[in-house]
């Protein structure tokens, strides 16, 4: 998917996505910020910011003398972020609708953070280099990804559920998920190192909670998997839902596993 298509899916998902903010995105965004440690007065880029799960905590941390730019292609999510930032009086936080891989600003950043975004880039390595290139010498790059055998277990179940209605998805059955490139601490460390970053450390965060069967479908619709059912007639969507819920039962999945890796590296200089 290109950035425009990704933005369309997440924008359409804004209600379901923000329905998971309190249980998933915000706590993990807070933890990302706790590792990134934006300091008062710093300039921060939150790449793929969504509704601001990590951009808002960063804006609180940098204080009135700091600046945070939250960049995303999903206007529907950005609107939620803008409303919350306005309510909190966070005028140092700007949400901008743009492809982050085209984003540039006049001054370099002290911190670039990207939570659950890099695996959407058409070329993860080029995208990572591009983001790291926006840092000042000595600046920090922070990336948050899903830990292996957690969230990614849902994707093949979603693909298998949708494939009978969408034959073009069949070629993805059993295929690699881009998030697998950064789903262990060793892989995140190696990836950050390949971007030219140093002083790398990776934190592993266990984050699970019950997933009630009635919450499984709203979760499907909140995520990129939503793209699988876009444009399908209602009866086909119902069949995808039934197969997805059955697939979760058969796999014994009754928890939402948002366990994550938060990697940080510093640009030399
Ligand atoms: C799983 S969401 C995570 C959002 C947010 N970081 C959070 O933790 O709640 C991934 C986000 O990446 C955005 N995204 C993917 N590729 C992008 C790109 N090239 N430029 C800007 N945003 C992008 C999507 O629109 C989506 O909002």
TrEMBL record:
GO terms for biological process: methylation. Gene3D superfamilies: Vaccinia Virus protein VP39. CDD domains: AdoMet_MTases. It comes from the Bacteria. Keywords: Methyltransferase, Transferase, Ubiquinone. One of its GO terms (molecular function) is methyltransferase activity. The keyword Transferase applies. This is Ubiquinone/menaquinone biosynthesis C-methylase UbiE.
């Amino acid at each position: 998917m290109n950035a425009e298509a990704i933005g369309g899916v997440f924008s359409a998902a804004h209600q379901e996505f923000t329905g998971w903010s309190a249980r998933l995105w915000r706590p993990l965004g807070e933890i990302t910020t706790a590792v990134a440690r934006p300091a008062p007065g710093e300039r921060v880029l939150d790449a793929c910011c969504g509704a601001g799960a990590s951009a808002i905590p960063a804006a609180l941390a940098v204080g009135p003398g700091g600046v945070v730019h939250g960049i995303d292609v999903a206007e529907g999510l950005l609107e939620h972020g803008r409303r919350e930032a306005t309510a909190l009086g966070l005028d140092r936080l700007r949400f901008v609708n743009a492809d982050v891989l085209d984003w540039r600003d006049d001054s370099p950043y002290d911190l670039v953070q990207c939570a659950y975004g890099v695996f959407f880039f058409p070329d993860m390595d080029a995208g990572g280099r591009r983001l790291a290139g926006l840092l000042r010498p000595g600046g920090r790059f922070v990336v948050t990804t899903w830990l292996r055998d957690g969230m990614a277990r849902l994707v093949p179940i979603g693909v298998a559920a949708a494939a009978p209605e969408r034959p073009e998805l069949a070629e993805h059955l059993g295929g690699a998920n881009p998030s697998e490139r950064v789903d262990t601490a060793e892989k995140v460390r190696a990836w950050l190192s390949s971007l030219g970053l140093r002083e790398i450390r990776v934190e592993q965060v266990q984050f699970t909670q019950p997933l009630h069967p009635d919450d499984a479908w709203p979760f499907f619709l909140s995520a990129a998997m939503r793209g699988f059912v876009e444009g399908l007639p209602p009866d086909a969507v119902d069949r995808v839902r039934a197969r997805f819920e059955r697939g979760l039962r058969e796999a014994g999945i009754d928890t939402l596993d948002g366990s994550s890796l938060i990697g940080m590296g510093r640009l030399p200089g």
